[in-house]
Design a protein that fits this description.
The structure holds three protein chains of three kinds. By secondary structure, chain A is α/β, with parallel strands linked by helices. Chain A has a single domain, classed as Dinitrogenase iron-molybdenum cofactor biosynthesis domain (Nucleotidyltransferase, domain 5). Helices cover about 30% and strands about 20% of the residues of chain A. Chain A contains four helices and five strands. The longest helix of chain A has 11 residues. Chain B is about 35% helix and about 25% strand. In chain B, the strands form three sheets. In chain B, strands 3-8-9-2-10-1-11-12-13 form a nine-stranded mixed beta sheet, with helices on both faces. In chain B, strands 4-7 form a two-stranded antiparallel sheet. In chain B, strands 5-6 form a two-stranded antiparallel sheet. Chain B has ten helices and 13 strands. Chain B is an alpha/beta fold. Chain C is α/β, with parallel strands linked by helices. Chain C folds into two domains: about 220 residues, Rossmann fold; about 60 residues, 2-Layer Sandwich (Alpha-Beta Plaits), CATH 3.30.70.20. In chain C, about 35% of the residues lie in helices and about 30% in strands. Chain C contains ten helices and eleven strands. Chain C has a nine-stranded mixed beta sheet with strand order 3-6-7-2-8-1-9-10-11, with helices on both faces. In chain C, strands 4-5 form a two-stranded antiparallel sheet. The chains are: A alpha/beta, B alpha/beta, C alpha/beta. Chains in contact: A-B, A-C, B-C. At the B-C interface, helix 3, helix 4, helix 7 and helix 9 of B face helix 4, helix 6, helix 7 and helix 9 of C.
């Protein structure tokens, strides 16, 4: 069973990938076998003065995903995700969630070895 | 799209005045005032506000006086000295001292403490005679965690993308703390404005350390260089040793203040050696940042 | 009595004024540099340093054997400095604000105190004046934790030996500036008569007047031409305690590290008079409270 999370500007597969991770609007969690989707609102991370990325990592980890697809991730969030074994695919902004997911299924998304966004 | 940020370790070196002039000289850019604590760029650019957003960040503790039974546990647990007796048998949180940590909220035996989001400031998207300006004002006394700086940078970058601008030009904050660190994030070039005074050089060294720490390329402008030629030489030696280019050495000239008082930038006044030096400096900065091919 | 020297805008002359006051002070004095991001007071007072110590913030260290991953710490932490991710617990010491909440809430006593280096505290003497300063480690984002350590050291000294303190505060009006002036008896606001100086001066007045302490203004570089500050001070009944004229000779002397009270008898008298007026203002201050719970 493979569940992946994609940062999303809205609750549907045709919404665009939210380029941000920590302060993304929300995450679409997709079960790649059943194509069940679940939207997790990320509002509680957005309002944090700092550490939103880590909070978002926690939310995503709780959803039991093995992979995260997004635009950019900061180093602390990346560290948190890596610690629980969640692989990260970056630089996918500009696509819809559906497109990002298809790319991932086709093996076209390279898993990142480090954060692509400078720390703060 | 490139991002250039004008910083200074020490305040009062002329950072904002020079940023204003560069905003005049640069083509096709989004201007951003990241000194959200004491923003001054708007005093030169006279922005027409097109959009205003409220900025909420973190939380603050508020004690409900009806529920408080005066036990004082909150005050004893607060590591920031922000809770004191209010003289009426209850306790009150000093909003200026509250760090928003939630400890008092969590431990109050009678659940008398609320934890609302903090309305910390406002940010704006405006138009100016030099182009779009993204700026903000933190309410006095608020925490300057750097988050508002990130919000502004994000906005400026998005605007640069949609409008096809190839530069985001930022007026940074003084010092080396949170807001400056946030300002440097993702910047291609930091231009540090310094002055040949003991404080100027000392603070330049710290800001250079910070740029090195965060791997941001740095160039240096020595302003008011004629106030102390020996100190200017020392700064130049420091820059040579560190490999920091010096796009300009500007004299102390009340022209900057005269322009400011008229609500103009220096390069809008009749041409002088000073403004010519500034034009050359900007050309050099563009080269260093990779804006000129 | 503790006097804080602050300003909205950087570079208006806080350190200049603090150093000059220190040289004319007529009673035992501790001169304190709380501008921990860019401490400059030592460049003018040239103290002999008697001691230095590294200041740390207490941060949580997890005993993984005792931790049950209940998440109580993680749920409480407002700064994501300690996070439970499934069966893992992660700490990010650089995010910690030192609130102590995680230690207090852990049901398994699985957290022990570790430390993060904040910076350095130094102390010594400059002539008749005691000197105390903080210097933030480059890369450390927050100044208030180090500032609080320096303030605690000041309180100890004053409790032991009595006398006054004059504090060189950081510029701006956000939390570092507020932290510096919070426990003082009188706040001096230094400004310059330029549009930037006036705008930031208004912000500072807005921020600091809520603290309920007597406020006085010092106009540095008087004569630069933007005189709105005088009308403002009259309107708000904010006394102008001193004016230092704009003079290129003063600027050059400052650039050479000279304390301006020592430049001429006239300037010395300006600061002697300023001290007298500060003491008058202090008489309006409510009696100091003992350190609270």
């Amino acid at each position: 069973m493979t569940r992946i999370a994609v940062t999303s500007e809205g609750p549907s597969l045709d919404d665009r990938v939210d380029p941000r991770f920590g302060r993304a609007a929300g995450f679409l969690v997709v079960d790649l076998e059943t194509m069940d989707i679940q939207y997790i609102d990320n509002g509680q991370s957005q309002v944090m003065a700092q550490g939103a990325g880590i909070k978002a990592a926690q939310l995503v980890a709780r959803a039991g995903v093995s992979c995260l697809l997004t635009g950019y991730v900061g180093p602390k969030a990346f560290q948190a995700l890596a610690a629980v074994g969640i692989k990260v695919g970056q630089n996918l902004e500009g696509l819809t969630v559906r497109q990002a997911m298809e790319r991932y299924k086709s093996g076209l998304v390279e898993m990142a070895s480090g954060a692509n966004q400078a720390g703060r | 799209m490139l991002e250039i940020i004008i910083i200074s370790g020490k305040g009062g070196t002329g950072k904002t005045s020079l940023t204003g002039a560069f905003a005049h000289l640069a083509a096709n850019k989004i201007i951003c005032d990241l000194d959200v604590d004491a923003p001054d760029l708007h005093l030169l650019l006279h922005p027409a506000r097109e959009r205003q957003e409220e900025f909420f960040s973190g939380h603050e503790a508020l004690i409900d006086l009806e529920k408080c039974d005066g036990c004082g546990l909150c005050a004893s647990m607060c590591q920031f000295g922000a809770i004191r007796e209010n003289g009426d048998g209850a306790f009150a949180v000093d909003p200026l001292g509250c760090e928003g940590c939630k400890v008092c909220v969590a431990f109050c035996p009678v659940e008398a403490i609320r934890f609302p989001e903090k309305h910390c400031g406002q940010w704006y998207v405006s138009s100016t005679r030099f182009g779009p300006l993204v700026h903000a004002q933190l309410f006095p006394g608020e925490e300057n965690s750097g988050r508002l700086v990130m919000v502004l940078k994000q906005q400026a970058r998005e605007m640069a993308k949609t409008r096809g601008a190839d530069l985001v030009l930022c007026d940074g904050a003084p010092g080396i703390g949170c807001p400056v660190i946030s300002s440097l994030s993702g910047a291609h070039l930091a231009v540090a404005v310094t002055e040949p005074t003991p404080s100027g050089r000392h603070d330049l060294e710290r800001v250079a350390d910070l740029c090195r720490h965060f791997q941001t390329a740095m160039a240096v402008i020595i302003n008011k260089h004629d106030l102390n030629p020996e100190e200017t030489s020392r700064i130049e030696a420091f820059c040579r040793d560190g490999g920091y280019p010096v796009p300009a050495r500007l004299p102390h000239d009340l022209l900057i203040t005269r322009a400011m008082i008229q609500g103009l930038v220096v390069t809008e006044l009749p041409e002088t050696t000073f403004s010519r030096d500034l034009r050359q400096a900007w050309a050099r900065i563009e080269e260093l940042a990779g804006l000129r091919r | 009595m503790i006097f804080a020297v602050a300003s909205g805008k950087g570079g208006t002359g806080k350190t200049t004024v603090t150093a000059s006051l220190a040289t004319v002070w007529d009673a035992p004095l501790v001169a304190v540099d709380l501008d921990v991001e860019e401490p400059n007071l030592h460049l003018f007072l040239q103290p002999c340093i008697d001691g230095r110590e590294t200041a740390h913030l207490t941060v949580p260290v997890v005993d993984k054997a005792k931790c049950t991953h209940c998440g109580a710490c993680s749920d409480l932490c407002q700064f994501s400095a300690i996070t439970v991710m499934g069966q893992l617990i992660l700490t990010f010491p650089e995010m910690c604000h030192g609130c102590g909440g995680c230690f207090a809430v852990c049901p398994e006593k699985a957290l022990s105190p570790g430390r993060r280096e904040l910076g350095e505290i130094t102390w010594g003497r400059a002539g008749r004046v005691d000197f105390l300063s903080g210097r933030l480690r480059v890369g450390e984002a927050m100044s208030p934790p180090l500032m609080r350590r320096v303030k605690a050291s000041l309180e100890q000294r004053l409790a032991a030996q009595g006398g006054d303190a004059v504090i060189d505060a950081p510029p701006g009006v956000s939390c570092p500036a507020v932290t510096a002036v919070l426990d003082s008896d009188v706040i001096l606001l230094v400004t310059e008569p330029t549009p930037f100086g006036f705008y930031d001066f208004q912000l500072a007045w807005e921020a600091f007047r809520t603290l309920g302490k007597p406020l006085g203004a010092v106009v540095n570089r008087a004569g630069l031409g933007h005189d709105a500050v005088y009308g403002f001070c009259r309107e708000k009944e904010l006394p102008i305690l001193a004016e230092i004229p704009y003079d290129r000779a003063i600027a050059e002397a400052y650039a050479r590290g000279r304390i301006i009270a020592g430049i001429s008898p006239g300037l010395q008298e300006t600061f002697v008079s300023l001290l007298g007026k500060m003491r008058d203002l202090a008489r309006q201050s409510p009696p100091r409270k003992a350190a609270h719970a």
